[in-house]
Design brief:
The chain has a single domain, classed as Lambda Exonuclease, Chain A. The strands form 3 sheets. Strands 5-8-9-10-11 form a 5-stranded mixed β-sheet, sandwiched between helices. Strands 1-6-7-3 form a 4-stranded mixed β-sheet. The chain has a two-stranded antiparallel ribbon with strand order 2-4. 36% of the residues lie in helices and 18% in strands. The N and C termini lie far apart (58 Å). The protein is globular, with a radius of gyration of 20 Å. The protein has 7 helices and 11 strands. The protein is α+β, with helices and mostly antiparallel strands.
Length: 241
């Protein structure tokens, strides 16, 4: 693959541990979901993604009720899509079956777990599905496009294939055609991977909005904005016009 995106494939089995003391990773590790939000401009603080790419076992902010509700809706919608594709006679691969890890020659690893991949047993054509229970975001399309780009390098099952994609929402679907992965897209992927791979960390940009969506805690990012505390400490004032 051109534009600095030459990759080798390596599979890794991760064991869950009780130790939550933050430590440096053995190499740079990037989840597709982090990369897609950076590319879409939905994560304005590049530092948070850089930190997670270079560190592991960090404490995460609790998800709460909204996360539990999302999980339930996501599972139900995923089941519905799987049944629809199976009725069409397609072979369906779900979540853990689709997990991949791809490496640059430099050692940077890109990992992802597409929700569902459906393969037409006749033509061999494959469609990558990702389920979203919230409002549509640009990162949704980019996330699926990244899966489509990396999967042909992750396993012989998809080698040489031009995959199509589809983002499934509660209210409809957005198709992601394979031609979205053009030279410009690959150049943008390279640009943001270079940011995450850099030895020097990017600058921090803490904000009410950005920090509210970040799962890092103040243990690793003391500058993280506490929305409740800061809103009380910074009352709104009238402007004299």
């Amino acid at each position: 693959m051109g534009n600095g995106l030459h990759i080798m494939i390596e599979y890794r089995h991760c064991a869950a541990g009780a130790n939550k003391l933050t430590r440096a990773r053995n190499g740079v590790y990037v989840w597709v979901t982090w990369l897609s939000k950076l590319m879409a401009g939905e994560t304005t603080c590049h530092w948070s993604s850089w930190f997670k790419a270079h560190h592991t076992d960090y404490n995460r902010a609790p998800g709460g009720f909204q996360l539990a509700s999302w999980t339930t809706e996501h599972t139900r919608l995923l089941d519905e899509v799987a049944k629809e594709q199976e009725k069409l006679g397609e072979t369906v691969y779900r979540e853990g079956q689709n997990k991949f890890l791809a490496k640059r020659p430099s050692g940077l690893a890109v990992a992802g777990t597409p929700d569902l991949i459906a393969m037409d047993t006749g033509s061999g054509h494959c469609t990558v599905f990702d389920i979203k229970t919230g409002n549509p975001r640009q990162s949704d399309i980019i996330q699926v496009a990244l899966y489509m780009m990396f999967l042909p390098y992750a396993t012989g099952l998809y080698k040489g294939k031009k995959l199509d994609g589809c983002v499934v929402y509660k209210t409809g679907r957005s198709e992601v055609p394979h031609h979205i992965i053009d030279d410009k897209f690959k150049q943008n992927v390279t640009y943001f991977l270079n940011i995450l791979e850099s030895v020097a960390p990017p600058s921090k940009f803490p904000s009410h909005t950005g920090c509210s969506w970040c799962d890092l805690t103040t243990e690793d990012c003391p500058e993280k904005v506490d929305n409740e505390k800061n809103e009380a400490d910074d009352p709104v004032q009238d402007f004299p016009l």
